[in-house]
Amino acid sequence: RPFPCNICGKMFTQRGTMTRHMRSHLGLKPFACEECGMRFTRQYRLTEHMRVHSGEKPYECQLCGGKFTQQRNLISHLR
After folding, report:
1. Average pLDDT value over all residues in the chain
2. Number of structural domains the chain divides into
3. Which of 1, 17, 44, 54 could in theory staple to 12 by disulfide, Cβ–Cβ 3.0 to 4.6 A?
4. Where does the signal peptide begin and end (predicted)?
5. Which residues, 6+ apart, have CB-to-CB distance to 67 below 8 Å?
């Protein structure tokens, strides 16, 4: 059974997905960085952000050796 967003009407097949979507309308950001206090709607965004503080750059370009904190930045670099 589909789960509609009460605000914009977008339909979701899973309740959890709809709940995460609702955070965008409600401005809820339950995941907070303990280093700087920045808040995020999703856990993976906090995990990506933490690399700013740790200096970790797990995504490496096989062509030039450049390193990136986020996979999407590596993909953009390769284009």
Report:
1. 94
2. 1
3. 17
4. none
5. 57, 58, 59, 60, 61
